[in-house]
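Exercise 3.2. Students should predict the tertiary structure of the chain below and write it as structure tokens, then compare their answer with the key that follows.

Predict this chain's 3D structure.
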Amino acid sequence: MIKILFKIALLFFFTFNIANANLYTIRGLNFYEESDDTPWFKPEAGKDLINLDKIGCQTSKGKKTKCKLSLSPMYNFPKDTLFIQNKIVRSGKYAWKFINGEGDCGQRRNGDDCKQNRERSEVSMSPPKSKETWFKFSIFIPEESEFTVPISNTIWQVHSQKGPPKFMFVISPNGDLQWQDFVNNSFGGFDSYKILDAKYVKGKWNDFIVNIEFVKWPNQSFIKVWVNNKQIVNYVGMTNNNMSNKPYMKFGIYKSNINRFETLHKGNPPKRGDTIIYYDSIVIGKKCKDLNLEEENNSCNKLK
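Answer key:
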């Protein structure tokens, strides 16, 4: 009996370790573990994929640390939904490729996306400690990429540690790209601003710059967004919510309200297609000059 139990335990040990060893095996990423078993990683191609050198980070407890990237969902990250590739790039030699399809979900510390009508393949970064923050990123969405209606489709966001989201880039039901503000809203949900017409969303690289000064709630400061050098969003409002003053960036694919699709098709929904998005030229800095806009044949002087 003891031998049988030992064999079962041994089998479980090897099965568990094999599963976990394969859990975060993604081409182009070097993975590490923190003390709380939270996986974080560094892209093998380095600064060509993301550059956080110009900004410091801190943990939720206030401990200063280097900026680190981690996967979201944290556990059981959907297999084959994230790649480092060199066929479609904006600048440099490499870019991120996300593919998120039906059933691509995992678990987080505070919930299970698979049981909460959510699907996601995202990358998160530690929160910046500076007030004024500049974000640069470029997005390419191929024509075959599906944003299923009436599912909510988010492709970039500023979230808050231990709190709700603050700002999002969302694909609207008609295909437009919207800026959604969850901090300043008129009816307790979010305010939306159209930042890119549907006919320009797919089939080309679009360059984005976001400039926000994060100040403690309920103080107000500026919120600015440029799309392909043209300033589309420019207003003053709260930049943090009353639950968290620690923002962080997430990029990738996040789908919520999956149940709406099933309801629309009266419990017999057809198979959904994949959502595919490429990200490149990702930089976070304290000043515009930190973004190195010249890499995209741009400059801070051209922003209008």
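Discussion points: Residues 61 and 246 are 11 Å apart (CA to CA). The mean pLDDT is 88.
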